[in-house]
Fold this sequence. Notes:
Layout: H1 13-22, E1 31-35, E2 45-49, H2 53-58, E3 65-67, H3 69-83, E4 88-90, H4 102-109
Parallel strand pairs: 3-4
Antiparallel strand pairs: 1-2
Amino acid sequence: VAGVFGQDVPQTTDEKRAFLLKNRIALWDVIASCEIEGSSDQKIKNAAANDLTPILNTADIQRIFVNGRRAEQYFHKLILPKIGRNAHYLPSTSPANAAMKLEQLIQKWSVIRRPME
């Protein structure tokens, strides 16, 4: 995301928080809790959704993006029915997504800077 905004990658928690605030980005995980072996999204079981309604009811959230296909699948299954708002898919930034080079990811993710259509 720092590459999309042409900024240095924040390192500390405070720098990351400042980066997000400066660029008007809110982060919220699709899954609040689950059972998982290791860190593979393919091993997720018994996923429970994060409730997005509090943030959507109090903040001017104009667009929602998901990071990767699994997040998109869980969003459609667990969250979309409750909030009635769709999310835009973006390719995963996980190191496991070796199919895309950093420059390609920056190009695809640049949609977050574009005005709403």
